[in-house]
């Protein structure tokens, strides 16, 4: 279970003071996420909401990438700040921009790098890496240079590198943004299969309202607050209404 207990995120920002350019800018706190109390116990939750509403910040709280300014976040009872490393072993995080997480020259080497701790034998590691790449239909890219891959291909490779270590929770920030129609459907099918067969729990943000409704539960974030939480179709309808796009 993922639990938010009064977790908030406040940042300090430099703001120009009324005195004009000759006075020093003042550091002013700005609340990005108001205190959140929430328990996510289902297998698949989606998060929707306007640009800048706080969705990515909410996700990064789950693996300790962002520290709550107050309150705490627990993943299966483990505190994301006090035991960050343990949490990150169980929580795989896929960024919107796959370039942020692919560090090796080829997809194969990248997935092998993920497996370095879990699989000591190098030929077994290579076989496992190929198998995970094949699961996402990108094994034919295994030996290519990562820099030559398209954005969507990189996205799938980044997901493979995260899945390779068999996380219990998978957090994805806008995973379909870069994908074409076929790869979007492949990813959706893959996520559903992972939930059904591996028992993986998924938390994702998306601006794709079809993808949002693949989940069992949807959260709507608006200006740093969760303003709706429940049945995906109902929450999506509320979001459309709020945005004036019905
Ligand atoms: N480290 C930070 N320092 C200052 N401001 C930040 C920081 N991280 C995020 N913000 C601000 O917090 C707000 C929420 O950002 P966040 O990335 O969570 O939004 P989002 O809902 O994911 O938006 P999008 O749909 O565009 O991805 C934005 O106004 C952003 O500029
Ligand atoms: Mg975001």
Automatic annotation (TrEMBL):
Key words, A-Z: ATP-binding, Nucleotide-binding, Transport
SMART domains listed in its UniProt record: AAA
Molecular-function GO term, any one: ATP binding
CDD domains documented for this protein: ABC_cobalt_CbiO_domain1
ABC transporter domain location: 9-245
Entry's transmembrane regions: none
Pfam families recorded: ABC_tran (PF00005)
InterPro entries given in the database record: AAA+_ATPase (IPR003593), ABC_transporter-like_ATP-bd (IPR003439), ABC_transporter-like_CS (IPR017871), ABC_transpr_CbiO/EcfA_su (IPR015856), Molybdenum_import_ModC (IPR050334), P-loop_NTPase (IPR027417)
Name of this protein: Energy-coupling factor ABC transporter ATP-binding protein
